[in-house]
Amino acid sequence: MGIDPGLTRCGVGVVEGRPGAPGTMVAVDVVRTDPEAGLADRLLALDEGLRALIDAHRPEAVAVERVFSQHNVASVIGTAQASGIALLAAARSGLPSATYTPSEVKNAVCGNGTADKRQVTTMITRILRLTEPPKPADAADALAIAVCHLWRGGVQARIAQAAAKERIR
Hints:
Subcellular location: Cytoplasm
Main location: cytoplasm
Number of strands: 5
Structural class: alpha/beta
Catalytic activity: Endonucleolytic cleavage at a junction such as a reciprocal single-stranded crossover between two homologous DNA duplexes (Holliday junction)
Radius of gyration: 16 Å
Distance between the termini: 34 Å
Binding site for Mg(2+) 1: 4, 138
Shape: globular
Number of helices: 5
Low-confidence stretches: none
Largest sheet: 5 strands, mixed
Cofactor: Mg(2+)
Strand order of the largest sheet: 3-2-1-4-5
Mean pLDDT: 90
Helix content: 40-55%
């Protein structure tokens, strides 16, 4: 499951597959919160929405876009809060989680860490063999995060496992 964290719109994409092969989209959704509601209520609604999707789809892992510095400080704070809720929802469900920077996701799906949103949407539509681009952009981004983890997460886990075995020796 890939999550594109946002306080107003939080994209969620579920894919299945294996590294090196195109995945299959299982589900795509956007958890929305009311911008007029208080912060605590919005965070609670986000948590409830994400946990419901985790319960419904039973992913093996959760990947979340890592918060990065933006010019709009208020926006990055909301994104960071949503990211924390996403990671907490994964932990409460006993799922492993990983985070990826936007450039890591773009590089994984487009081969270019500076790709724009249109390029990411086009590539994720092709990779998952969708008949039309997922909308809104938060949904396409969430699917891209899921594909990034599908392709890179397994490799990273094997490297970490090998490193741990080496330390034991």
